Amino acid sequence: CALHVICCNAGQFFSSGHTNNWAVLVCTSRFWFNYRHVANTLSVYRSVKRLGIPDSHIVLMLADDMACNHRNPKPATVFSHKNMELNVYGDDVEVDYRGYEVTVENFLRVLTGRLPPSTPRSKRLLSDDRSNILIYLTGHGGNGFLKFQDSEEISNVELADAFEQMWQKRRYNELLFIIDTCQGASMYERFYSPNIMALASSQVGEDSLSHQPDLAIGVHLMDRYTFYMLEFLEDIHPASKTNMNDLFKVCPKSQCVSTPGHRTDLFLRDPGSVLITDFFGSVRKVELTMDAINLTDPIKQMEENPVNGEEQKEVYSYADQLPVSEIIHQKPKQKDWHPPDGFILGLWTLILLVFFKTYGIKHLKHIF
Amino acid sequence: MGLLSDPNRRRALISMLTRLNAPICVVCYFAGVAWFMGLAFEPFTLRTYMSENAMGSTMVEERFPAGERALATGREFAAHKKKVGGMPVDWLVKNMQDRGLEVFTQSFSRTLPFPDENKERYIVKGTNVYGILRAPRAPRTEALVLSAPCSPGDSNNQAVGLLLGLAQYFRNQIYWAKDIIFLVNEHDLIGMQAWLEGYHHTNTTGMSWSPLQGRGGSIQAALSLELSSDVITSLDLVLEGLNGQLPNLDLANLFYAFCQKIGVLCTIQGKLQRNDWDSVSGYSHAVQTMMLMVMKQASGRPWGDHGLFLRYHIEAATIKGVNSFRQYKTDATTIGRLLEGMYRKLNNLLERLHQSYFFYLMPSLSHFVSIGYYMPAFGLLAVILLLRALDLWVQLNTPPSTTEDGVADIDQVRHTPGVLSVLTPLVISHLTGVALYALPIRFQETAVEHFPVSETEAVVLTAIAIYTAGLALPHNTHRYYIMCVCGTEQGWRVLKLIAVLYLAVLLGCTALINFSLGFILALTLVPLAAFVTPHVPKVLSAFILVILSPACTLLFSVFFFQELQEMPVSFQDGWLLYLSVISQGILDHSLYGSLVYPLIALLVYPCWLLFWNILFWK
């Protein structure tokens, strides 16, 4: 019957599992000669906004000292292409963490949600267990670390632990991690939380190279990996069905000189079935129906049919945050004996004193 | 038991030391010289590279268009200079103001200790004119300086013209993050010293100047321009500054990078780079370039207007335009573009230049030798002195071989005379040194009264006279020895020990500050310190000692320097040049605080006198 079909479709309706999208875009460099990192991040920001994620769902962390730098011959602009076709700074950039606020501590607090109560909403990552989060990092990195603003570093172990905290606090449904730095693949080696897919611009021991110098401005404008990734993203529109396998093919060694890498073993779904817009856009699925549906039964999950005889993937579940049943059915604890209170002691002393006062001391020997 | 605490082993070590002392010293000396000569061999050098991340590569677009107009301005400047008969202050002020700079002047005057050939008067008065281009959006915390000297006659007019042309072009750009100060200084180094002292509120040399009305923040880098012709064939880079200090190597790297980008021929020490390092002539060319740099650094005088900036930790260099007979000529617009590129890159700096080397030698503009590679050459020479000192110490402490106990006792009583006995020669030598330092200037008036010479010549000849008079000392001072230890073998040994250690410390400290000066002094003084004893043949050794004394070293260096520059001089001209070098050294010391003259007069000369004393020990 129609109700059954719609029920089954409704089950498929939520197959991707997410209901909202977030993006955390971080540029970890400052100073004029790192112009290209800011241009990288702003270009990704533009694409993500174009595909539908609003500013309230983007946490943008930039040193933001490029557009108004005294050395910029085109003040108030940041260009990503040599012919200066696109000013990625524009007039509607919302930078949430700027200047010296881009620190490792702030980044980890944003991810894990441990922010002081006075933090404004625009600086928080208010994701839930149905959020797909895109995390993009760019800057200078090395084997196992990423340099933040010339003064500190974040290691791949810290990052993996932060993601595990996010998983345990149910702060994401699926996570896409993209990093464009030298030796970027070392940053995703240590991840161990489920539902994370990672891409990097170069392998351990390789440098990510910059793409275009601009002689009028006097700096390199963009890095290669992000440049070709953006060329790829330009073809994506909110309704496109391109999947992650195409993203993995972006910037082969002939164009990028470094070898981009990716990691999908922690991800539940097959990358071929993951749409680009699952992470880069904010797509609301709409299905029109003319009938009313009585949704009294909970939606059953579709059974995963093993394809080509593959093993059933282990189904992860959340650890119980508050084990109520254990608390209810617990036996009461034996309380330890404590000596009586001071009040009781004082009362008994008073009674004894009154007794001996009345009846005389000679009665003491009868008691002791 | 350890090597040094085991008596048997110690005795064996000491006997080996005393037996092999002379051969090891000779080997070390030749090894040091060979190491130094090998520094210019190209496989032992490193290619220059940009170390500063903020400066990056030469990735800028230079668009300076107005070379011809700059030359026309230079001609106007020349005309006004001739009309006024000095620095055309009013014309410069008006011109800079028209170009949009904030213009200020500074007047200064200096009483010279004696008039030298160039000035021919005791008091030098002048005015500096400078204009500040304020950065459009930056706070006034940092500055860059471009300077051109106002020289008498026809020189450096084009430099001032180009400076004004660049000022106008730079004024129209909005990407400056530092203030740029355009300075035209009068009387070359004297004016520059006055300006720097006024800028930094120091007064180290006793000059009187009017305080600066306008300032620009702490100076990060400075370039001085010397351009005397409309077209040039090559650009020469001058790095050596006061007391042998050099700017950061990144400045030279920046210059070389832009020379290559724009395609201008660039030289250092006036010599072009050659590619055939494996041939003999190629290697000798590199050695000549390096020796020129060593001689210039050893002289301790600033070889361009930039030399005085280095003392304030401001990296500076001088760029000289050279017009020699070559086919390919470069015009003023190209030079302007090169300077524009360099200034745009210096503009990108976030901190002072500090990533690259401060101590280096350059056998060519694209190769360098850093301090870690050239110091062992000096170390090998210093080791000779230490070995000699050890040898003397051993000789002083071994009791003389005796047959009877009685004789041995008496000998041992007079065995080590102690340090006080050699105080007399020390004091007398240093007093002579003080006389050499102070008397020439003090007694120039009396000298001029009694002899028909000019003041400069009087000063120089007095210095030479005192120097030669010191040679007579050993014969006259024997009477003044307290505790007559003259005659004992140990007396001169103690004196020589002290003298050798003194020389080692002196040369070591000198080499740390000015490697070239230390090395050249070591080349001549170390052999004489090693071999001199009272027992060598007197006449021959006296002759050798005089030849290796600092004054004669200077004389030979003057002739050698002229040879290296391919302008050999006859003996007459060489002698006059030598006299002028001495007078210039004395003048530099009182004007700018150069340390070469006091070092030689107060420390090296007394040390040499001690060895002269040892030679004539009775």
Please describe what this structure looks like:
The complex is a heterodimer of chains A (368) and B (618). Chain A is an alpha/beta fold. Helix content of chain A is 27%, strand content 14%. The mean pLDDT of chain A is 83. By secondary structure, chain B is an alpha/beta fold. Helix content of chain B is 53%, strand content 12%. Chain B has helices at 7-38, 67-84, 89-98, 157-171, 188-200, 249-262, 280-299, 332-347, 371-397, 405-413, 423-442, 444-450, 455-469, 473-477, 489-513, 515-531, 538-547, 550-564, 571-592, 596-615, and strands at residues 46-47, 102-111, 123-133, 142-150, 179-186, 208-209, 218-226, 234-238, 266-268, 315-322, 360-364, 367-370. In chain B, the strands form 2 sheets. A 9-stranded mixed sheet of chain B has the order 6-2-3-5-4-7-10-8-9, sandwiched between helices. Chain B has a 3-stranded antiparallel sheet with strand order 1-12-11. The model of chain B is unreliable at 402-415 (pLDDT under 50). The A-B interface holds A 31-33, 68-73, 75, 213, 215-216, 218-220 and B 53-54, 56, 59-61, 135-138, 173-177, 344, 347-348, 350.
What name goes with the CATH superfamily of the largest domain in chain B? Answer: Zn peptidases
Q: Would you tell me which CATH topology of chain A applies? A: Rossmann fold
- Mean pLDDT across every amino acid position of chain B: 88
Helix content of chain B: 40-55%
Radius of gyration of chain B: 28 Å
- Ends apart, CA distance between termini of chain B: 44 Å
Oligomeric composition of the shown chains: heterodimer
Overall mean pLDDT of chain A: 83
Radius of gyration based on Cα positions of chain A? 30 Å
Do you know the CATH architecture of the largest domain in chain B? 3-Layer(aba) Sandwich
State the name of the first-level CATH class of chain A: Alpha Beta
Q: Total number of β-strand segments of chain B?
A: 12
Distance between the termini of chain A: 93 Å
The count of DSSP E runs of length 2 or more, i.e. the number of strands of chain A, is: 12
CATH topology assignment of the largest domain in chain B: Aminopeptidase
Which CATH architecture of chain A is right? 3-Layer(aba) Sandwich
Shape of chain A: elongated
- Number of contiguous helices of chain B: 20
Q: In sequence order, what are the helices and strands of chain A, one letter per element?
A: HEHEEHEEEEHEEEEHHHEHHHH
Pathway (chain B): Glycolipid biosynthesis; glycosylphosphatidylinositol-anchor biosynthesis
Subcellular location (chain B): Endoplasmic reticulum membrane
Protein name (chain B): GPI-anchor transamidase component GPAA1
Membrane topology (chain B): Multi-pass membrane protein
